[in-house]
Each structure stands twice: as structure tokens, then as C-alpha cells.
Design a protein that fits this description.
heterodimer; A: alpha/beta; Rossmann fold; six-stranded mixed sheet; four-stranded antiparallel sheet; 7 helices; about 35% helix; B: about 400 residues; alpha+beta; six-stranded mixed barrel; binds adenosine-5'-triphosphate; binds magnesium ion; Macrolide_Exporter_MacB (chain B); ABC transporter permease (chain B)
Chain lengths: ~230, ~400
């Protein structure tokens, strides 16, 4: 496990106090290796999004260890996690989450602004990322002028423009039809194979999960299956 | 990066143009009020000083002391009369003119037209003492003043109103219950610094005024015009000594008259203007406070509306300070815009008022710069709390926000 990018050991995430306490995660152990494409499945409320938020360094565990790139990420403060996200993590959400009334190119440039990259370089990088997701020629369209599939491509371009180590995708095809879903999955698979991008992706659909190298299954805040052919491997 | 943020802020202000303008109204009105007041105020001060320097700093004004309301005054109230004028005329040296004046606001009628005017009863020396010129016809004569004849001179405002470009000489006008024959018109003096039309007047012999209008023998004011180069302080002392002696005032008693020179009066008037400017400044300050609260309110709305945007920015690596700066800049740009609009409006108002009151238009660069800095500060101060609230958002909650 020396090449593990993300590690959870006995991670708990609890909300509320006493009687009303809810354990969204109840002792989760997992590891995601560099270059791996992992799907996360499980029933609604089983803790998928909660663990994705921790994997993406948006959140910290209530107890247990969250390691990212060998760092004890659970101990980092808000600002340090912001730096980590900006440098190493890209996000793709179910609802695209693009800035409205802002062009595709400007949306993609956004993370680079917070890196303090000069405008000219930023623009070039954004154009390149948009071309990579097959949106060359649409750079100056706003989200309202793009289809759902196209908006999700812009979101992917925004996630990869920083050349992250890890891509965190919570139900990236949740709002798309089958045809569009498979196109997005081909794009993600390509990024994983060709660029070595590590991907952690939540999905509800088995055929979407089958694009991944393995599927981690959640049930009631615990891991039901790590998805290896042999658990001991 | 900062330029980027300013551009972003301008874009957001433009997108919500209507809302932005309404929000800015408080700031616009506040700044406009300050700019207009200060500009008009300093124009007025300049005008008052100019008026007074035109009158000449060598003019003394003598008036009867008013009874003190507390009743502790150490003098016998006594109004000015012909005797006082005569004794000053006889005893003062080194003076150009000594002139008595009584006046009141009286309705004057010519044919079917009528207006209210300042009717002044005076003597032949008045023209020298108060710097009046005769533009048409002639001045009063000694005989007319002594005899109380029904003759008068009219100011330019009345001339234009009653006669247009026609000839007013030898026409008869009614002044209150009496009437007089116009023997001349006065040269124009324009408005005073306080917006009073100096040309809306009728000048007649003092005796005529006393008998036919006032119905008494009193004089309101005696003007003493000191010769150029003579000391006004000395003249004030002389007038005081002569009056005390003539009125037989015991050394233990106070003067029952006041002698002032124009520089004193100028100072009093200027300080009145300054006090007024200060008070209106306070009113404007309150309006700016209201404007600031408006900014705070609209920024809170803006932060709430853009919670999801904040979530996205935080998720992809924005720091708290980036969000804080973004909204602070937005609030500052907004209030600065209000400030600039206010400065424009204020200068416009002041310019209009200046030409209407015929006072100098005196915009102060310092005051304008202060207004710019102040309105920017209002944005920063009142935008800080909403911006902080946006910056402190939890990215996960913010992303979930609908
Ligand atoms: N901020 C919160 N406060 C309280 N409870 C929460 C909070 N976030 C999540 N939970 C609870 O934690 C549990 C796990 O939530 P989570 O969002 O991880 O589920 P999920 O597996 O992503 O479900 P879904 O498939 O519906 O998205 C749920 O019972 C949820 O109600
Ligand atoms: Mg979820």
C-alpha cells in the first residue's frame, strides 16, 4: 500500500448529539491507490457523499485518520485544505455547479485565478482543457447556452485544468441521459488511462460503475465490500 | 488579481443595475447634500465677504441697544433720533458721511401692479455712506429731506417690474398709505450672500418715511463712513464718546447704543454660515449612515443569492480572504459609484444654486476628495460584515444551497 493516495482508517463522521446522534460514517477503512479509478455505490444515506467530501478535503472526520498524499489531512485547517484542493484535487458535481452568466472559458479559468496564474497563461490552459473535453469552439458560451452533457464537460475541464492528482466526482452522470452518461464516462476513463488521473466516483448505476477498476460498496456508514477480486489482494 | 476582482464586482453591479441604483440612493443623496452644502456654503461666505468689502471696511454701524430680556441691563433703552444724527454730524471729524436710515417692508402699487419692497427713509449722505449710485434721474436734495416731500428713487427690480423698459421718471407710485413721485432710479447691486435682492427697494426722504410710513420720529440705523486711511477703532471710540456725552450717560452706566464696524459684522455673518454648513453636514452624515446600512443590506442579499457560487469558489481552492476581498471590493465599488454620482449631483445642485443666488460657484477639491474616500470607506465598513459572512461559509453547506 505504499502508493496509496487516499487512506481512511477507522473514520467516523457523526452529526448531532446524544440520542439524536447520527453516524454518517461508522468506522470506515479504505485505500485508493494512485492511478486507480474507484466507483462508490450504496443505498441512499449510506455515507457515500460524506466520505467523498472527506476524500476531497472539503470536510474532516469526527474521528479516525484521513491520509492524503501521506499527509494527515484531517488535522489540516481550512486554509491548508483549500491549498491542498487547489493544487491536487478536481471536483465534478451532479449539478455541474458552473457559475451562471459566466462563459465556459471563464469557468474553467476560475481555479487558476486562485493560483495567481497570469491571465494569458490561464486563458491558454482553459482553452486546452476545453479542447480536451471536446468543447473547442464553445469557449464563449455561458452555461445557459449549453446542454447538460456540455455543461458537465465544462465542469470536467475546470476540474482537470489544474492537472490535479485526484478527481472527485459525486454522481457525475446523475442528471444525464444514458447516451450522454456514456460519453462522460468515456471521457473520464480516457483521463484515467492516458493521464494517470486517480478518480473517485459515486454512482447509483451498475453500468456506470463498471467503467471503474473496482467498486466500493457502502451500507449504513460502513463498507460492505472493497470490490477487490480477492479481499486479501 | 485585484483588477480581476474589481472587474468581477463591476459586472455584478451592472447585472443588478436597478437594485444597485436603489441601494445607492442613500449614499448619492448623502454625498450630494454634503457637496452641495459645502460648495454653496463656501460660495456664500465668499459672497458675504465680497459684499462687505464692497461696503468698505471703513463703515461703522450705530444702533440702539435692545432691552435685555433678563432685565439686568445697566442702561436705559433709548432709540436713535434726529438729535443723535445731528450731534454725530456736527462733532465727528475725519468722516466722509454720516447718514440715518429707517426701513420696513411695505406694499407698493403702480397702476394695477403691486409688490412688496424694502422702503428706506434716509438722507442725502446715504448714497456716499452705502455706495449707491443713481442710474437715471437724480438723488435726494437737502430741501426734500428737510421738507419731507413725497419723492422717491426706485431700485432696478422695481423699475423692471413696473415699467419694463419704459421711463419711470415723474410717475407716481403708492407706497403703503402714501404716494411718491419717482425722481430717479438706483444702480443695481444684485443679491446679498443670503439671497436677498438688494435692488427691490424704494428710497425716500427720512422725514417723509417717518411721518407717512412709520408714524414716529425714530431712526433705525446711523451709518458713519470713515475717511480712507483713518482708524476705524478710533472712530468707534469717538462715536461712543460723543453719543455718551450727548445722551448724558453716567460713567457707571452702560452704553444704550452699539457701534460696530463692518469687519466685526462680517465675522458674525461668516460664523453663522459656517454653523449652518456644519448642521446640514450632520444631516448629510445621517443620510450617509442610512446609505451604509443600505449597502450592508444589499450585500447580505448578494451573499445569500450567491451562496452556491461561494461554495464552488471555496471548493476549487479560494481562500476565505479571496471571498472576503471579492465582496468587500464589490461593496466598495458600489458605494464609490454612489459617491461619484453624489458628487456629480451635488456639484450640479450647487452650480444651479450659485447661478440662481448669484454667488460664486466654489467647488473644493479637498471636499470632493474627502467625499470619494469617505464613500469608499462606507462600502468597506458596511460591506465587511456581509463579506465575512460569505467568507466563513462551509463549502459543503454552500454547495448544497439551492
Ligand atoms: N450536515 C449533516 N447533518 C446531519 N446529518 C447529515 C449531514 N450530512 C449527512 N447527514 C446524514 O448522514 C447520512 C449519510 O449522508 P450522505 O449524504 O453521505 O448519503 P449518500 O450515501 O450520499 O446518499 P445519497 O445517495 O442520497 O446521496 C444520512 O443519514 C444523512 O442524513
Ligand atoms: Mg450523496
Amino acid at each position: 500500500m505504499t502508493d496509496a493516495l487516499v487512506t481512511f482508517s477507522d473514520v467516523w463522521k457523526s452529526y448531532g448529539q446524544g440520542e439524536a446522534q447520527v453516524h454518517a460514517l461508522a468506522g470506515v477503512d479504505l485505500a485508493i491507490r494512485k492511478g486507480e479509478f474507484v466507483a462508490i455505490m450504496g443505498p441512499s444515506g449510506s455515507g457515500k457523499s460524506t466520505s467523498m467530501n472527506i476524500i476531497g478535503c472539503l470536510d474532516t472526520p469526527t474521528s479516525g485518520l484521513h491520509g492524503f498524499l501521506g499527509v494527515d489531512a484531517g488535522r489540516l485547517d481550512r486554509a491548508q485544505r483549500a491549498v491542498l484542493r487547489n493544487l491536487y484535487i478536481g471536483f465534478v458535481f451532479q449539478g455541474y455547479n458552473l457559475l451562471p452568466r459566466t462563459t465556459a472559458a471563464e469557468n474553467v479559468e476560475l481555479p487558476l485565478i486562485y493560483r495567481g496564474m497570469p491571465a494569458r497563461e490561464r486563458r491558454d490552459a482553459a482553452m486546452q482543457a476545453l479542447a480536451q473535453v471536446g468543447l473547442a469552439g464553445r469557449e464563449h458560451h455561458t452555461p445557459a447556452e449549453l446542454s447538460g452533457g456540455q455543461q458537465q464537460r465544462v465542469a470536467i475541464a475546470r476540474a482537470i485544468v489544474t492537472r490535479p492528482t485526484l478527481l472527485v466526482a459525486d454522481e457525475p452522470t446523475g442528471n444525464l441521459d444514458t447516451q450522454r452518461s456514456h460519453e462522460i464516462m468515456d471521457l473520464l476513463t480516457g483521463l484515467n488511462r492516458n493521464e494517470g488521473l486517480t478518480i473517485a466516483m459515486v454512482t447509483h448505476e451498475g453500468d456506470i460503475a463498471s467503467y471503474a477498476d473496482r467498486t466500493i460498496s457502502f451500507l449504513d456508514g460502513k463498507i460492505a465490500s472493497q470490490g477487490y477480486e480477492m479481499e486479501s489482494a | 488579481m485585484l483588477w480581476e476582482t474589481i472587474r468581477l464586482a463591476l459586472r455584478s453591479v451592472r447585472r443588478n443595475a436597478m437594485r444597485s441604483v436603489l441601494t445607492l440612493l442613500g449614499i448619492v443623496i448623502g454625498v450630494a447634500a454634503v457637496i452641495a452644502m459645502v460648495t454653496i456654503g463656501s460660495g456664500t461666505t465668499a459672497k458675504v465677504r465680497e459684499d462687505i468689502s464692497k461696503l468698505g471696511s471703513n463703515l461703522l454701524v450705530v444702533r440702539a441697544s435692545r432691552p435685555d430680556r433678563s432685565g439686568t441691563s445697566n442702561f436705559t433703552v433709548r432709540r436713535l433720533e434726529q438729535k443723535d444724527l445731528d450731534v454725530l454730524n456736527k462733532s465727528l471729524e475725519d468722516v466722509r458721511a454720516v447718514s440715518g436710515e429707517s426701513q420696513s417692508q411695505v406694499r407698493i402699487v403702480y397702476g394695477a401692479q403691486n409688490t412688496a419692497a424694502q422702503v428706506t427713509g434716509t438722507d442725502t449722505e446715504y448714497f456716499t455712506a452705502r455706495d449707491w449710485t443713481v442710474s437715471l434721474g437724480r438723488a435726494l436734495t437737502e430741501q426734500e429731506v428737510r421738507g419731507g416731500t413725497g419723492v422717491c428713487l426706485i431700485g432696478q427690480t422695481i423699475r423692471t417690474q413696473f415699467f419694463g423698459s419704459g421711463d419711470p421718471l415723474d410717475e407716481i407710485i403708492r407706497v403703503g398709505k402714501t404716494s411718491c413721485r419717482i425722481i430717479g432710479t438706483l444702480g443695481s447691486k444684485g443679491y446679498t450672500g443670503f439671497g436677498q435682492d438688494q435692488d427691490n427697494l424704494v428710497l425716500m426722504p427720512l422725514t417723509t418715511y417717518q411721518r407717512r410710513i412709520a408714524g414716529n420720529r425714530y431712526i433705525d440705523t446711523i451709518y458713519v463712513s470713515v475717511n480712507d486711511g483713518a482708524s476705524t477703532t478710533q472712530a468707534v471710540a469717538d462715536v461712543t464718546a460723543i453719543m455718551r456725552e450727548a445722551r448724558g450717560i453716567q460713567p457707571t452706566r452702560d452704553d444704550n447704543f452699539e457701534v460696530r464696524d463692518m469687519t466685526q459684522i462680517a465675522d458674525a455673518m461668516t460664523s453663522a454660515t459656517t454653523a449652518m454648513t456644519g448642521m446640514l453636514g450632520a444631516v448629510a452624515g445621517v443620510s450617509l449612515l442610512v446609505g451604509g446600512i443600505g449597502i450592508m443590506n444589499i450585500m447580505l442579499v448578494s451573499v445569500t443569492e450567491r451562496t452556491r457560487e461561494i461554495g464552488i469558489r471555496l471548493a476549487i481552492g479560494a481562500h476565505e480572504k479571496d471571498i472576503l476581498i471579492q465582496f468587500l471590493v464589490e461593496a466598495t465599488v458600489l458605494s464609490l459609484l454612489g459617491g461619484l454620482l453624489g458628487i456629480g449631483l451635488g456639484l450640479g445642485l450647487a452650480g444651479g444654486a450659485a447661478s440662481f443666488l448669484s454667488i460664486p460657484f466654489a467647488p473644493s477639491l479637498t471636499v470632493i476628495l474627502i467625499a470619494v474616500v469617505f464613500s469608499a470607506l462606507i462600502g468597506m465598513v458596511f460591506g465587511f460584515f456581509p463579506a465575512l459572512r460569505g467568507a466563513r461559509l462551509n463549502p459543503i453547506d454552500a454547495l448544497r444551497h439551492e
